[in-house]
Model the fold of this input.
Amino acid sequence: MTAKHGDTPIDPAKRVAADLGIIPAAVNGVKDGLLAAAMQDGSVALIWLRDQSRTNDVVAALRQRQEQARIQEIISGESLKLRFNDPAVDPRVPDIIVQPMLGTIYVSPASAFIAEHGGMTDPDMHVALLMSMPHFDKVTIQFPVQTTQVAPTILTALGLDPAQLKSVRIERTPVLPGLPFDRGLKPN
Done:
């Protein structure tokens, strides 16, 4: 049992339905037409650029609007590649990810949203995972894992090849650590 995400608490008195135009304006302020695509889904803003060589310029422009756009963190370059695939080789990955301050959601001011979930803050990302496998010994593992590891782990436990999943092959997703088949043993 697990969840795909936690739920970020939001103080209605501090709820900011940030102006959805701030981030695109910052990007295109660097160079008109630089923004290839943007997705502001409430919990984060994802930015794809037409010219990836301008990523640092866009980050600088976003930092100038950090207070106005209520930006907590801007993820790009090497720090982005530590968490995701390289956007230069994987078009699914945005060039820049903007995490708003806790309590801020990127939605239209007219939106009925009063809270957001599934972002990249600690309350969003830290969820429990409970597995029951009767033929394995009881063990508690306190190690950070990702929910993307659940599917390959289940397939491995069933004796199936997780590499049959395209996403596992592309992202090289490992099985959950600490289980007997993580050490090369197969379940009974």
About this structure: The chain is about 25% helix and 15% strand.
